[in-house]
Every structure is written in structure tokens, then in C-alpha cells.
Amino acid sequence: MSSAPPKDDDSRAAGRRQVLPRGLSGKLLILTMLVIMLTEIFVFLPSVANFRLTWLADQFVTGEAASLALERLRDEDVPDDVRDQLLSLTQTELMVVRRDGARRVLATKAMPGQVARHVQLASPGRIQAVRSITDALDTLIMGGDRNIRVFGPMKKRNGTLELVMKEKPLRDAMLSYARNVLLISLAISIFTGLVVFLTLRALLIRPMQRLSGAMLAFSKDPEDPSLVIEPTGRRDEIGVAEVQLSAMQKQLRGTMAQQRHLADLGLAVSKINHDLRNILASASLFSDRLTSLPDPVAQRLAPRLVRTIDRAADYTRSVLAYGKSGEAVPQRGLLRLHRLCEDVAEALALDDDSGVEQQVEWVNEVDPDLEIEADAEQLFRVLLNLSRNAVQAMDSASDDALIKRLTISATGDKNIIQIQVADTGPGIPDAARENLFTAFGASGRNGGTGLGLAIAAELVRAHGGSICLLDDSAPGSRFEIKLPKS
Ligand SMILES: Nc1ncnc2c1ncn2[C@@H]1O[C@H](COP(=O)(O)OP(=O)(O)OP(=O)(O)O)[C@@H](O)[C@H]1O
Ligand SMILES: [Mg+2]
């Protein structure tokens, strides 16, 4: 029932599409021809007005020549047939000369018609342009059987000559002139239109078609490297667009490859986590048993081992949860930062109780009373990543004389707390600086994945804070974390 109107609309739309070409080239051709035709009209109007005045002036000159002969003779000396021939040769109906207030009819048809228009011939400078154009249009549109009176001063003699004539020959001459002008204009506009069209097509349309074609092809198969547009080296706006498009396509391909990489990695991590969780569960069981051994070292280390394994098991759970939800919302609680830093040192076996011979000196300068509201597990991971990087960087230096010191300190007011993790290592390599906090963007270390700092930055951001590398002259690296206190 309701299907008829849309059909109508469709066919109307199709009709419109047929009238106007869809491509830019066709539209350009039609537009160029229209503009040229319009320009020709503006040129045509004054030129047809000028043609009319010239035609009348020619008639006037012929009339003046005839009047010269007639005026010399007395009226009765001129036979009627000669007079008629002169009138038809000059295409006039009435010929009158006025001089010194006297009016003399030199020749007249038997019944000259009623005069409809008067045209005063004067020097071209005095002719008003607009008036002459409206008069020309009047002749073209209205002139048919009308009579016109042309008058003006004679060139060779004193006095004024008046000619009454039919307007039709003038109109016919003007029509044939208009036809010729129209044909020439049409030819010029087609020729110019084609030249403009072909030039613009080569200069603009073709390159634009190439650009849009490249976009279309690329959007269909962004993985195909051959579909990245090759800039032609033009220096104009199209050249700029080509370069930008090419750069965008390359960047997009890079981003897509990185996303694929991330997706693959995510899947791999989920799988590894899944199995790691089971292994950690067994390890936890075994380490529980260690506590029951009578050995004092086992008694001291076993609880640490249990805590560490439990923490690792928690991570595997949260990684799997992250894979599902896509975000880790911090579970804030009030904690002592000093204690958390000690946990980090313990996890890296940097503390004195670890039983490991220390390569790196650990300095915890955080006020033992400093409290902060944060997700303990996440803040632990942030500090662990920063501290582990520092330890790894300092471990890589083989010179034993070098001081290897990792210092964590914190300052703050009632709103914001600044935590600094500083080391005396070799500093961040230049190559790693640019994308330091981007996943996979900045690994300058053998065996590093380039994820540690990205994870740290993400967790800090989730707390509403920020992390940055401080650029100061002290040797080593110094990272600063700013966190809202609550
Ligand atoms: N304290 C530091 N001293 C020197 N270089 C550092 C330090 N911290 C980070 N870097 C440099 O920044 C890079 C990126 O660190 P990031 O923790 O993001 O990745 P990673 O340590 O390479 O790998 P992982 O994902 O295992 O942590 C490191 O490879 C290292 O080159
Ligand atoms: Mg790291």
C-alpha cells in the first residue's frame, strides 16, 4: 500500500541524475559552457545595439546622397518613377530636408505609414549605451510592420535630414546578425569549454580521481601495501594531499599491525596466564609445606615465598579479568607508602633480609608515617616496574666501582603526593625516550617487551595521577609519579 510514493521519488531522483552528470568532469564541462554563453550574452547586447546604429547611419548616408540630387532639382523636374526608385533604393517612405526653419519634402510614397519610433542620429560619443541597448531589444522584439523616423544633421550640407522607413529590413538584418553571433558564440563556448575542461581535467580532476580511487581501494584492503598511494611529487595542494594521504595510510597500516600484534599478544597472555595460575597454585602448596621444615632459613624465607606466589596468582587472576572487562578499576584503600616500598624491595630481593648478596643499594626515603589512598596492588606494580627497570639498567653496567643505588622518596601536600624513583644507572637511552610510556614503543633493553612503563602509566592514570621522566642533570634516571592523596 505504501510502496508507490517511494517509487515515484526514486524515478524522479533518477531523472534528476540523468539531467546533471554525476562526475565532476561532466559538471565542469556544462558549467564552463554556461559561463561562456553568459559572458557572450553580455558582449552580444552592446554589439547588436551598435550594429543597429551603424545600419541606420549607413541608410542615412545613402539617403543624404539621394537627397543631394533631389534638392538641386525642382520638384516638377523629377519624374515620379525616378522618385519612387530613389525611395525604394534607399528603403525609405519619406525624405524631408529642414533648413533655416523651412521644411521641404523631397520624396514621399503615396501613403507613408504612421511613425512609431524616432531615432536621432548623433556622434557615437553622445549615444547613451543603455538607451541604445533597450532600443535594439525593442526593435528585435517588437519591430515588424512599424515605421521609424531617422533624423540628424547632414554631413555635407547645412540642415537636417529626416527619413521615414520601414523597421522590418532593419530587424531582419539584426536577426541575421544575432544568428551569426549566436553560432559563433556557440562555437567559441564549445571550443573554450573543451579546452578549459580538458586542461582542468588533466590538472585537477584526474589527480583527484586518483586520490579518491586510492582512498576507496585502500579502505577495501588496508593490509595490501601496494595500495598505499605513491606521491607524484607535485608541489601544489594536490601534491600536499597525496603526501598526507600516503602518510595517513602508512600510519594506519602501522596502527593496524600494532593492534593485531596486541590482540595476538592478549590472547597469548590469557592462555599463558591460565596455565600459569595452575602452576602457581601447586607452587603455593609446596611453599606452604616449607614452613613446617625445621631449618631456620626455610622458616624465614618460606612466608615470603608464599606471599610472593600469592601475589603472582592474584596477578594472573586480574590479567584474566582485565581481558574480559578491558579495564582495571583501582580499589582504593588507605596505605602506608613506606611499607609498600619495602614490599617492592622484598619482591626484588633488595632488602637486607633477602639473604642475597646485594649489588644494588636500596634507599627508602619515604616518611614511615606518610599515608595515601590508593589501590595497594596497583601502586605496588607501578613502583615494582620502575624499580625493576632501574635495577636492570644498573645491573647492565659491569664496572664494580660504579655506585648502584635505587632511591624512592616522596613529598607532598594535603592534596597531591609526588613519589620519585631515582637510580644511578646509565640513564634512559635516547632511542627509548620518545615513546617511553607507549606499549611496545620504547624497549631499549635486550629481552624487554616495552610494556612495563606503559602499564605503570596506565595504572597511575587510573588513579587520576600522572607519571613523567624528570630531565635533570643528575646521573641516572629519575621518574616522578604525581597522585592525588585521596
Ligand atoms: N631506570 C632506567 N634506566 C635506564 N633505562 C631505562 C630505565 N627505565 C626504563 N628504561 C628504558 O626504557 C625502556 C622501556 O622500559 P619498559 O619497562 O617500558 O620496558 P622493558 O623494561 O624494556 O620491558 P618490560 O616490559 O619487561 O618492562 C627500557 O627497555 C629501557 O631501555
Ligand atoms: Mg621494564
Write a compact overview of the structure shown:
It contains eleven helices and twelve strands. With 486 residues, it is an alpha+beta fold. Helix 5 (168-220) packs parallel to helix 6 (237-290).
Describe what this molecule looks like in 3D.
By secondary structure, the protein is an alpha+beta fold. The protein has 3 domains: 20-194, no CATH class; 221-327; 333-484, Heat Shock Protein 90 (2-Layer Sandwich). Helix content is 56%, strand content 15%. A 5-stranded mixed β-sheet has the order 2-1-5-4-3. A hairpin with a 3-residue loop joins strand 9 and strand 10 (416-423). The longest helix is centred in the middle third of the chain and has 54 residues, at 237-290. The model is unreliable at 1-8 and 13-17 (pLDDT under 50).
Keywords:
486 residues, Heat Shock Protein 90, 56% helix, rod-shaped, disordered N terminus, binds adenosine-5'-triphosphate, binds magnesium ion
Largest sheet: 5 strands, mixed
The tally of strands reads 12
Order of helices and strands: HHHEEEHEEHHHEHEEHEEHHEE
Low-confidence stretches: 1-8, 13-17
The total domain count is 3
Alpha-beta classification? alpha+beta
Topology, please?
Layout (H helix, E strand, L loop, with lengths): L3 H16 L4 H49 L7 H10 L2 E8 L2 E7 L6 E6 L8 H14 L4 E7 L6 E7 L1 H53 L16 H54 L5 H30 L7 E4 H11 L13 E4 L6 E4 L1 H20 L9 E8 L3 E8 L6 H4 L18 H11 L3 E4 L8 E7 L2
The chain binds adenosine-5'-triphosphate and magnesium ion.
